[in-house]
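User: Run a structure prediction on this.
Assistant: Running it now.
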Amino acid sequence: MDIREAQKIAWENKLNKGFNTTDVALEFGLLTAEIGEAFTAWRKGLPDFGEELADVVLYTAALAEMNGIDLAAEVENKISKNSARTYERNTNGALVRVSGD
């Protein structure tokens, strides 16, 4: 399954089940909760860590759909942009972008 298909299916599930499809702020709050659940699953070594990461992707896909964003295209663009960037460590050891937009 690709990102575009996952976005469509996630949205259809929200519509079919009567989940939130209009309140962007609420969706960000729910996404934040899912990120917390994923972190807890990872930290505790729980077997549902992968499922929690999937929830993060699905909430992100729903946010994209709510806002008319083609998430697959945005991910492709971002990967391309990131690959063109170069970084160097500063005197504190932090990576700092030195080229690319």
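The mean pLDDT is 97.
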